[in-house]
Design brief:
Layout: H1 2-20, E1 23-25, E2 32-40, H2 46-60, E3 62-68, H3 71-82, E4 90-92, H4 97-104, H5 112-118, H6 126-129, E5 131-132, E6 135-136, E7 139-151, H7 152-157, H8 166-178, E8 182-184, H9 197-206, H10 208-215, H11 224-238, H12 252-259, E9 262-268, H13 270-277, E10 286-289, E11 301-311, H14 318-328, H15 331-341, H16 351-357, H17 359-367, E12 373-376, H18 378-381, H19 384-399, H20 404-418
Parallel strand pairs: 2-3, 2-4, 8-9, 11-12
Antiparallel strand pairs: 1-2, 4-11, 5-6, 7-9, 7-10, 7-11
Length: 426
């Protein structure tokens, strides 16, 4: 017995360095599988990431092991871990000012060598959109546009056409209210971050160039255009055009669209895959709609969101992460992304496949040809300090719309404190 115990101890001592490095062995004992940490803030996508990790383990012997967090927890947890050897090898983040903050702190790995190998797999402009000061720091997890999904059962029941003007849009919302149908799915639910959506969607439809000026510190939150946007939002809230504020965007809103108790859900087009995961059928349960501009200055504009995958510079698995990202940019990963979420990031999925697999996405791509002006989403377009303060203010707006001016003055004060830190005279 002593000899067996001694042999076991020696075996464990020999294996410990391998286990510490994230190395495990397949059942045959011949295939070495290296494990890699992956963080994300989408619990609803955990199963997807598990499948992606299993596929990469089979293809290249690197298994991405995902850990999911709620968004608020995630933001602080990732920043804390990135400064230590606990840093995730790969993590989902947000580009723009949020990535700039991490880059300045020296927490992001340079991915130039990865892009040299995979650039041919992506449409032109993607690398540039994930670059800071000439250095690419990410690969895209999702590249999408912000649209409004609508309930096909609602529109078929009342034999309605989608509105062509803002006035028609408001008239339809009033009609839905009279029929006991909730107009817009923008709520507090379980997700603090979603409160900015309607502010963004109204503001840039009033004046797209002004939206950009506000995001870059060239305009103010107390300017007349912002006040106009808040008054429109206030009126919509007071008229009861929104779903109950405790409705969740992952579970409740898709169900309500399918049941015909909700007319619209404004989200990035990543939401289509989420709805399909909830059992909705594109073209049957929901369609896609881009609301008309409020003034001519809002015409031809659309919000763009690029969701990046970054590498923690302090992670002991940086080399694994880079090897895994090269795989992630390949065709097998692209097909998993398409089959599971109906997302298209690379050139591997053809337009024919898109038309056959998701007619709503195909229709969206046709609609987008009429929207040449791409605007960065509020969450990424302006400094983190302003966004976080504004998101809290907008959550208050959802339940106390009468406080709109007080809330704008509060955001304006935060902007005055913040912009000088970025070298902007405000």
């Amino acid at each position: 017995m002593y000899g067996s115990r001694r042999a076991l101890i020696i075996t464990l001592i020999l294996l410990f360095p391998l286990l510490a490095c994230g190395i495990v062995f397949a059942g045959s004992g011949k295939t070495q599988i290296r494990e890699m940490k992956l963080y994300h803030d989408n619990p609803e996508l955990q199963e997807f990431w598990i499948k992606m990790g299993q596929a990469s383990a089979e293809d290249i012997g690197i298994k991405a092991v995902p850990t999911d967090f709620e968004t608020q927890v995630y933001k602080s947890r990732v920043k804390m871990d990135l400064a230590t050897p606990r840093a995730p090898a790969v993590f989902k983040w947000w580009f723009g000012y949020r990535a700039f903050e991490l880059m300045q702190a020296g927490l992001l790995a340079d991915l130039s060598d990865v892009w040299e190998k995979v650039s041919k797999n992506y449409p032109s402009g993607i690398r540039e959109s994930l670059t800071i000061n000439g250095v690419p720091y990410a690969l895209p997890f999702n590249v999408g546009y912000w649209v409004w999904y609508y309930s096909k059962p609602v529109y078929e029941k009342y034999n309605l056409e989608l509105p062509k003007t803002w006035d028609e849009f408001m008239q339809q919302l009033a009609f839905f209210k009279s029929k006991g149908i909730y107009g817009i799915g923008n709520t507090i639910g379980k997700s603090r971050w979603t409160s900015f959506i309607i502010f963004q969607e109204i503001l840039y439809r009033i004046d797209a160039d002004f939206y950009t000026d506000l995001m870059t510190g060239k305009a103010h939150y107390t300017d007349p255009t912002v006040v106009q946007a808040m008054k429109i939002w206030k009126e919509m809230l007071e008229k009861g055009y929104f779903a109950p504020m405790d409705a969740t965007y992952v579970e409740d809103l898709p169900r309500m669209l399918r049941e015909g108790t909700l007319a619209f859900a404004p989200f990035g087009d990543w939401y289509s895959g989420l709805m399909q995961q909830q059992g909705l059928v594109p073209g049957k349960d929901y369609g896609v709609f881009i609301p008309p501009p409020i003034t001519p200055k809002g015409a031809g504009a659309i919000i763009l969101e690029v969701s990046p995958l970054c590498v923690g510079k302090n992670s002991p698995q940086v080399d694994l992460a880079k090897e895994w990202l090269v795989w992630y940019a390949g065709e097998h990963a692209a097909r998993i992304l398409w089959n599971e979420l109906k997302w298209v990031n690379t050139v591997h999925i053809t337009s024919k496949e898109i038309a056959e697999g998701d007619p709503v996405l195909a229709h969206e791509l046709e609609l987008l040809k009429n929207y040449p002006k791409k605007l960065i989403r509020f969450w990424e377009a302006t400094p983190v300090e302003i966004v976080e303060h504004a998101v809290d203010a907008f959550n208050t707006m959802l339940v106390h719309p009468e406080k709109y001016m007080e809330l704008l003055e509060s955001i304006e004060q935060k902007a005055k404190e913040t912009w000088p830190k970025y070298g902007v005279k405000y």
